[in-house]
Batch of 2 targets.
Target 1
Amino acid sequence: MASTLWTKKEETWLISYWVYKSPEKIAEKLGRSVGAVKKKMYKLTGSANTGRGLESIHSLSERTGYFEYQIRRAIKHLRVKPVKVGGPVGYQLKDYQVEQILQWLTETDLDEERLRKIRLKDQGLWSKKFTECRDCGTTERPHYGLGLCRPCWNRFTWKRRKNI
Ligand SMILES: [Zn+2]
């Protein structure tokens, strides 16, 4: 085996794909031996196998640009159970969990209104206090006010106006 020096590009590629691809696949792609790939990964990260297929929330955040709180929210929403590895790293995500999380984050428009609804839905709520519209029982239409959807709220306030 020709022991050529690693280029920066190869190193970057190795780090990026380490959690997704097997050392065998990476070795094949780079035209290097599996041993050389593992050894290089150990040199770069200080771990050859412990990190294989696992990624911390912090590292995922660094790699993707999503904030850690966004990732935590996705974890909670998707009910993903990270692997407890102990030590300063704490929880680690398996590669399929990372994929789930990234898919959810890209599909979800993370504006505040949307996040508020997701939070409420996670708690089984439709509005801050109610699980559905108090009058018609819809959860399809958004909450408008007083525990009512817009049409019910209109009806309610119209009745009130009429009765005055
Ligand atoms: Zn209603």
Target 2
Amino acid sequence: MSDTYKPEWAPEKDSDKFASRVMFGVKGGHDGMPDSSGENSQTKRAAVIKRKRLTVDDYVEGVLNGDRMILSRAITLVESNAPVHFEVAQQVIQKLLPYTGKSTRVGITGVPGAGKSTFIEALGTKLCEAGQKVAVLAVDPSSTVTKGSILGDKTRMENLSRQDNAFIRPSPSGGTLGGLTRKSRETLLLCEAAGYDTILVETVGVGQSETTVRSMVDFFLLVVLTGAGDELQGMKKGVMELADAIVVNKADGDNRPKAMVTRAEYERILHFLRPATENWKTNAYTCSAYTGDGIMELWDGVVSKFMEQGLENGVISERRKQQTLSWVYSMVEEHLHNLFYRSPSIIEYMPRVEDEVVEGKLSATRAVQELIKKFSATSLKAGIDNDITPFDIK
Ligand SMILES: Nc1nc2c(ncn2[C@@H]2O[C@H](COP(=O)(O)OP(=O)(O)O)[C@@H](O)[C@H]2O)c(=O)[nH]1
Ligand SMILES: [Mg+2]
């Protein structure tokens, strides 16, 4: 073995005299130093993979082999806003598509502090211990504004992240809601291709995130708290109508009796609501993410039953078809929207039209006709030729 190491940025065909060769350190295995032939060589291999520029086939093969590092890199590619990454990512997704669709996709929502992350950690750990592969994703639209995210979860899911069968990925940050949706959905597909049996998607209960996540999962769980009289009042009926189950968390210690009461209250309300899924009755349950009480009961008795039944009666495959189609439509809308509003001729023409409309010189309908005419005549073709791209790509 050569005792020097050639950095990747050194010229391919340099002579051995290249000035930047680096000598390996002292051989380990003594004085408490790690042995370079053991774990260290693994780390070295990992470092090489990390640096190496991967081809589309490298990504595809790595993901299909369940290589977590390559999966991570593929997700980074999907999340990237660089056009060149976007293109490679699309080729990877296209090739992996036949291997997707086999997971149980579960969305978990609820107000901050409801215990979603703790619940996911408890459930995920149990599923891993039972031999399943579990991926945890997060969708946090606030991260598109603040660039912060519920990333804190990653460090908090300590037990779960120690499991070999677990993969945890925080919410992509930055960009539009449309961009976030695409990135999250494609990340989910990558995880499926990598063989994760269950994909748990946590989302913060704000804004449009619930509908976004509802539109990418099979089963949607709403985590709520006790003493939620106010919350019940304030909670949008809409969110409850998205849920396939509601679980009152923190049903432990002194809080347990209250949790039972709250559960009954939710049951009462659910009675009047339209269930989220055909042939499925949405019920309320209690659990403690802390002690683990009720968690596997909810999984085995509710989620698994839902999947079994839904796969048998076709509800799940129908839901997935509709989800993919409406995703396509919403991307088309977004693309057209961007093509229009970002096209130079519209940017130039718009203020004049606005003025005329506001001053009552031009009717709204006529204004739209004029704008579209202008757009089709000039920017539409130019825009497509110049590839004004949608999806947050810069
Ligand atoms: N007593 C009790 N506390 C819990 C339980 N689940 C979560 N918590 C606590 O509630 C707080 C918020 O939990 P977290 O999982 O971060 O909530 P999230 O914002 O919905 O993800 C944390 O301090 C948790 O320790 C539970 O089942 N019982
Ligand atoms: Mg959380």
